[in-house]
Every structure is written in C-alpha cells, then in structure tokens.
Amino acid sequence: MESYRIFNGQYKHLVQYQARHQPTESRTKYQYPVPETIFDCPPLSQEEEAAFIAKGEKAFKTFLDSVLKRDASFIWNFVGDYDGIRLMEGDIPGFKLEKPPYRAFGKITATLEEIAYLHAFETRDKCDFYRKHHAQDLLDMFPLYSFFERTPARPLKQMYIKWSALSSPVPIIKNRDFVFIEAQDEFRLSSGRRGWAFCQYSVDVPGVCHLQDSPLNLVRGSVSHMGCAYIETDIPGVLDAIYHISSDLKGAIPHWVRKIGMKHRARHLAHLNEYVRKARLNSRYIIPKPHSWPAPTSQRCTICDQLKGYQQIASCHSCGEVVCTRCSRKKLNLSKADTNERERICNNCLRKVRRDSLSDGSLSCPTPNSEASSESSTSLARFSYRSSSVGGGSDFDAIDAASVAWPGNKARQNSDPAAVDLSYVNAYGENLRKTKSLPLMTQPKRVVLFDPTAFQQQPTPVEDDDEGNATVIDESHIDSIMMTNR
Predict the structure, then answer these.
(1) Cα–Cα distance for residue pair 375/30, rounded to 1 Å
(2) For residue range 14-62, what is the model confidence (pLDDT) as tens digits?
(3) Residues 400-416: tens digit of each pLDDT
C-alpha cells in the first residue's frame, strides 16, 4: 500500500508538471480538417515549377524501376494476409534495416480509369472524399500546388504537391504529417498491357512550416518513392496492385507499432474493391427519395418467389422490382455519404454492378480502351497511347507478347505452356522468405512455377519522344511482382 501511494503521488506530480509547462493552446484539441490558410504558399516561379516537375518525373521513373524489377539484394519476409492482401517486409541479408520497406500485393476488381479517378486531388473536396471513403487513417489532406490539368489527351497524368496528416496507430505516439510531391501517370508493358501508378516523394516547400510546436502537435515525417502500381491482367476488369511503402516517421517508434501502421495501409487495397462496387452502384440510376417507388402491390419476391409473410417486401431503388430483404441489400449512397442514407438494391442489380465495367457511368474517363481491364475486344494496334513521363533508362528484358495468353487468343489459351502469362507469377522467386515469428503451420508453401533465367534476354527498346507513344517497359523482371502461393 505504501508503494502504491508513492507511485500515485509521483504520477500526479508528473501530470501536474506537464500541465504547467504545456502551452494553453496545445492542451485544446484541434479539430480537423484544418483551414488551407494554415500555410502561406506563394505562387511558384516557372523555374521552381519546372524543378518540381522534373523531380516528380524522376521519382516516378525510379519508383517503377524499383517495383517492376527484381532486386537480388533484397529478401522479402511474409508478414501476413489481410483481407486477401499479402504484406511483405523487406530485408537485406547481413544488414539490419532500421526502417525496412514494406510491399503489399493483391488483385483489385476495377479499371485503371476508376483507380485514377479515385486519386484525383485537384480540390479540397476531392481530398475529403478520398479520406472518408478510402483512407480513414488520414486526419486531413489538401493540395498545395497542382501542375497539370486532366484533358482527353492526358486523362491519367497528374502531379501535385500535397500536405497530409496521418493518425498514429496507438495513442502514445504523436500523429505525423507529410509534405510530398505526388506524380501520377500511366505506363505500358512490352506485351501491350497498360498500367497506372502514383509515386510520392517528400519535398521542402517554402511557406510550409513544421507544426510540432503548434496546437496540432504533428511530427514531420518523410516518404521516399512510396506509391502503388496497378497493372492489367488477362482477366477483364481485374488489376494487379503493388503497394510499396517506404517512409521515415521520425522519432523512436517501436517496430511493432510501425508494423501495425503498415497493416492498416495494406488493408486499403482490400477496401478498394468495396469502394469501386459502391461507386459503380452509385453511377446507376437511383430513384430520388421524393419520387421513390410506391408501396409494392405484389406479395411475392421476384427473385426467390417468397411470400410477404416470411420476408419483408420492398422495391429495389435501381430497377423497381419487388424483392424481399433476403434478396436485397441496403447500400450507402456515396452522393449522400454525409447523411448515411442507404438505398435498397436487389441482388440482381448488385451482380450486374460487380460484372459490368464503368464505361457508361459517372466515373468513366475519356481514355483509350484497354483490351484487358477495360474489356475491349479490339486489337493492340488500336491503342493510341500518349507520351509518358517514364524514362528510357530501364534495363528490363522483354517477354514476347505473342506468348501471352490474351483473352481473345482462345486457340492457344491453356493449351501450351508458352501461352501462359508469365508476367505476374513468383513474387520474388528464390529471394522469398517467411517471417520466423510466424508459426510453421501458417506459413504458405512457396511454389516455383518457372525458371525466369530460361528466357532469352532482349535489348531495351528506345523510348519514344514526347510527341509519340508511351514508353514501353520490358517485362523480364515483372515475373517477380505478384504472389502465387496461397
């Protein structure tokens, strides 16, 4: 009891000391979102803008080189599987990394245009929409500068300088904020597959001061070539996603706390599937509430033919059919997300949303159609790719596109080993290693499907000029980007 009183007295003394020496304004909880006038950002000169654009394009190219190439010096440890997303932790044998990088892999049911639309941050409203529906761990985010306008000629290319505040996964650690340049662009593989990626790289911007001594009490962190690449697969409407997380949160943060934050970021890929389904559903015609369907006159569900006495009967707000509660779902209307208003949608309409692309919806962008994820049945010769910011210094070796099993190549599909798409198998080949802390029974077996050294190397093609087509990225090392072991 005596020791308890001593400890209790010391604790009260510590709390009183901290309260006396803490500024009054810092004790007040600051509300998010913060006003954009918190930073005094002067207009950039032409030289400063050109320097930022060059830095963003260089970071974007370096990001693609590091993500789409096999790095023999790195070993990737399996951390876990979270909602179908596999999280890996990078390691260099013989060298202890204080801040190891992480990579998350998964498949997303979406198109490149839908993903690019989600990552449009020209205005504060778009940033708030992204935070509420996709990144709930972001306290606030808004653009400081925007360098390009989305046009029909360049619908997927954009570059911003943004400020964002990230909540800490545990209360004992302060929240972080970041100032970075984000480059977005599409690219093309040598087989003809399209891809889209964004890369974030920390920069110093005049007028953007540190906020650690402000009421926000934010610690300024940094990111280095962090981003995500989305690549078309041979399945229409399905993308391979590679999320590379490389950040320095500053301060003494335990490894287990950092890993919790990485798990939260990895789950963002899984949330993309649900978001895209909601966006597609929201793009369909939803009958407004004042003109909603009258009370259903039928006493039977049109799907299961169940009588009203067994299930409650209601009308679908998309097609108007009479359905029961078991054959329908209440879905959040994204246009009314602030009111949490939900609309009843039947299972038939939901299946159509999952199956159909968004070619005629509100999220569609005026871009060239893709043979893979955009479900175009035309040939690759029809594609009119624009110029890309990817440089020509990549030393990728090409996999012959003729050997790839495209959806329209039914004659060779699944009949010849050479017809199998080898672009996305064996995540990191022989360099894959499981985390030792995982129980042996939970470690998935590594399956080596092929030997990448059996392919003959081909020279890197020359990059097209700014007026030509997009840069071609060869695929010799892209066999190492997606996990196949379950």
Answers:
(1) 47
(2) 333 333 444 433 333 567 888 888 898 899 999 999 999 999 999 999 9
(3) 323 222 223 333 233 23
By DSSP bridging, strand 219-220 and strand 432-434 are unpaired
Tokens of 132: 């509420």
- Cβ atoms of 344 and 333 within 8 Å: the answer is no
Taking alpha carbons only, the member of 139, 271, 188 closest to residue 472 is 188
Measured CA to CA, the distance from residue 395 to residue 416 in angstroms comes to 28
The identity of residue 186, as a single letter, is E
Six token digits for residue 424:
């996305």
Q: Encoding tokens for residue 355?
A: 């199956």
Residue type, 62: T
Q: What is the 3-state secondary structure (H, E, C) of 302-337?
A: CCCCCECCCCCEEECCCCCCEEEHHHEEEEECHHHH
What Rg value do the Cα atoms of the chain yield, rounded? Answer: 25
Strand ranges inside 334-440, DSSP E: 342-346, 432-434
Which residue type sits at 182? E
Which helix (DSSP H) or strand (DSSP E) does residue 189 occupy? strand 176-189
The whole-model pTM stands at 0.66
Integer Cα distance of 129 and 120 in angstroms: 10
Alpha helices in 21-157 (DSSP H): 24-27, 46-68, 112-118, 124-133
Closest CA to 308 of 319, 317, 297, 293: 297
What is the Cα–Cα distance from 476 to 209, expressed in whole angstroms? 44
Maximal C-alpha separation, the chain: 85
Tokens, residue 71: 């790095």
| Domains (range + CATH), the chain | 32-283+367-486 (3.30.530.20), 289-355 (3.30.40.10)
Give the residue from 393, 406, 373, 386 showing the smallest Cα distance to 470. 386
Instruction: Name, in order, each residue with C-beta under 8 angstroms of 249's C-beta and a sequence gap of 6 or more.
Output: 99, 176, 219, 221, 258, 261
Q: Is 452 helix (H, G, I), strand (E, B) or coil?
A: helix
